[in-house]
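[retry 2/3] GTP cyclohydrolase 1: previous attempt timed out, resubmitting with same input.
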Amino acid sequence: MINNEEFLDEIGDNHFSSNAKNPLREDAFALTDEEKIEKIKKDVENILQTLGMDLTDDSIKGTPNRVAKMFVKEIFGGLNPAKQPKASTFDNNYKYGEMLVEKNITVYSTCEHHLLPIIGRAHVAYISSGRVIGLSKMNRIVEYYAKRPQVQERLTMQIVQELQKALGTEDVACVIDAKHLCVNSRGIKDIESSTVTSEFGGKFKEPQTKREFLDYIKLDTQF
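[retry 2/3] GTP cyclohydrolase 1: success.
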């Protein structure tokens, strides 16, 4: 009989997700960014003091404030819907009807189980049904959903769903190949392994279209 703490540890160590959406409370944005920074700063101070660190040392005395600002303004900034990029689309006036692929988009995210980095590349593609989106917007969508405590499977799905909504088509695909430092630097400590996730919508579910996309990104993994 496994107790609840052991069960929760097993979920985290095996990188399972309990929610297809980022689990946010209803009052997630009741505090301002500045109020959140002040609260997190005190929490980080407590962690460091508990670990035995001397917070009067010049090298570390600013760490609680730096970490708090980093959490709120940077690596978890994608939790705030006010920071969601505007996914401007345009008429496909030049009638381009083939696959458009944006590959090797840098992914910097954070594993929600151990709060350690996820670092890799996203490859995103769509086939226009009448609308097109600026290339930089695809990068910004990846960045927005990556900047939160994440699970790679969820991140992959969120990128596809956001582009499907913006473009008005199901014909969107995303593959992410990333290293998880919670695997590489702790636990099993396998520094070579990476995790590949995929989400295929519409025409990308068809074997020929899927294979064409995987050939573009030079990925041999079979899905």
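[retry 2/3] GTP cyclohydrolase 1: The radius of gyration is 20 Å.
[retry 2/3] clearing retry counter.
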